[in-house]
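Researcher: Let's do a round of design. I'm pasting the structure tokens now; please hold your answer until I've finished.
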């Protein structure tokens, strides 16, 4: 277990070992920060391929992910699954997105409520299909819950949820029965301070 002195947490994402920086979100909560887009092409290709193998038995027909960190994962998992299309959901408002396909979300790494939006022009690519919903890290389950609501509003079926890492245990309670769909390449705890200035791992 890492301490406040070294400020990193060593973990594995599938076959790949990583030293993640420990970042304090508040006086009471620290996380090991995985920024997918900072780890390069080889990392994303390997992680996407390994995650695709975990998701393949569910026979998804399209991958849906969340911008921005989920984009490399969506591309590489789709490629490895032999799929030629994927759909990205957005938290940042854009002129072409509108509000017709939007759900509220509050992420652990943002300090205010956001909305997860789907491009109306892409609804037909998802409607009625078997969907793999992928995200880089599942922590509170808030972003993922919003994504699942959007997919189901499109009359599509989420058949598997893929992630690089699960974080803590709150996501299981947030997802309820959908937690059984999660396939992850690794897991890591949240961290809370102890009386000596170190950090205590919290897996729940």
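Researcher: That's everything. Go ahead.
Model: Designed sequence:
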């Amino acid at each position: 277990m890492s301490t406040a002195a070294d400020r990193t947490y060593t973990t594995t994402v599938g076959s790949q070992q990583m030293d993640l920086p420990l970042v304090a979100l508040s006086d009471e909560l620290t996380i090991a920060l995985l920024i997918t887009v900072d780890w390069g092409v080889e990392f994303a290709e390997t992680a996407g391929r390994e995650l695709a193998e975990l998701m393949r038995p569910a026979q998804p027909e399209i991958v849906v992910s969340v911008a921005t960190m989920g984009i490399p994962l969506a591309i590489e998992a789709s490629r490895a699954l032999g799929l030629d299309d994927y759909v990205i959901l957005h938290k940042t408002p854009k002129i072409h997105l509108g509000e017709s396909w939007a759900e509220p979300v509050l992420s652990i790494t943002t300090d205010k409520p956001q909305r997860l939006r789907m491009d109306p022009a892409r609804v037909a690519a998802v409607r009625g299909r078997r969907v793999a919903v992928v995200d880089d890290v599942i922590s509170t389950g808030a972003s993922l819950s919003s994504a699942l609501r959007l997919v189901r509003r499109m009359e599509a079926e989420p058949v598997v949820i893929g992630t690089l890492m699960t974080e803590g245990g709150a996501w299981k309670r947030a997802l309820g029965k959908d937690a059984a769909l999660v396939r992850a390449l690794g897991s890591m705890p949240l961290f809370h301070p102890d009386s000596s200035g170190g950090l205590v791992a919290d897996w729940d």
